[in-house]
Specification:
Length: 195
């Protein structure tokens, strides 16, 4: 799902679905997204109860005080077990940290932390280094992949930030969706050698 409508004014968005549900339940506040995920990316997203809280949370994102971690399944084995991708995107600096968690026969399971927030940053960066995300159709051709995935294998797994009102650290985690779990079950891990 899209988080918010695009210029084509699509009505079936996550924000509309959530707010329509609140109306049906006679809840007085409305939810406002504090960030976005690509349509094909699963996982956690933060909504605020009202515009003033949304502005505070968006400021936290702008100040890079929200830590986001993703899980991505990328084509092939990466040459380094961890690293940073520092390739600009549309002329703007972009930095993505990664760490290989597991190696499978024809793909790697990677924990990813974008340090900047460019549109499609993770997808573009892994394509640029020759390891596109499984199921990628926007920045790579599906026919070029050894492993076929029915969906983009990119999942927003963790979010950590200081709550803008309570001023306490909060941490959220979301398990992998069934399609990504099934892909892992069908492809057994390869042992990584100690560093």
């Amino acid at each position: 799902l899209l988080v918010i409508p695009t210029p084509r004014n699509e009505r079936r968005t996550l924000t509309n679905i959530l707010n329509e549900d609140l109306i049906k339940r006679a809840v007085l506040y409305r939810l406002h997204p504090c960030h976005r995920l690509d349509r094909e990316t699963s996982g956690l997203i933060i909504y605020a109860k009202g515009k003033s809280i949304q502005k505070k949370m968006m400021q936290e994102f702008k100040q890079k005080r929200v830590k986001k971690k993703y899980i991505a399944f990328v084509q092939g084995p990466l040459s380094k077990k961890q690293g940073e991708i520092k390739n600009s995107i549309e002329g703007l600096s972009a930095i993505t940290k990664y760490k290989v968690i597991e190696k499978r026969k024809d793909f790697s399971v990677v924990e990813v932390q974008p340090l900047t927030g460019r549109t499609n940053q993770i997808r573009i960066h892994f394509k640029q280094i020759g390891h596109p995300i499984l199921g990628e159709t926007k920045f790579a051709f599906r026919r070029d992949f050894k492993i076929k995935a029915k969906r983009l294998c990119l999942h927003a797994k963790n979010l950590e930030f200081i709550h803008p009102i309570r001023k306490k650290m909060v941490f959220f985690s979301c398990e992998l969706p069934s399609g990504m779990k099934e892909l892992l079950e069908r492809n057994q891990p390869i042992r990584l050698s100690p560093t």
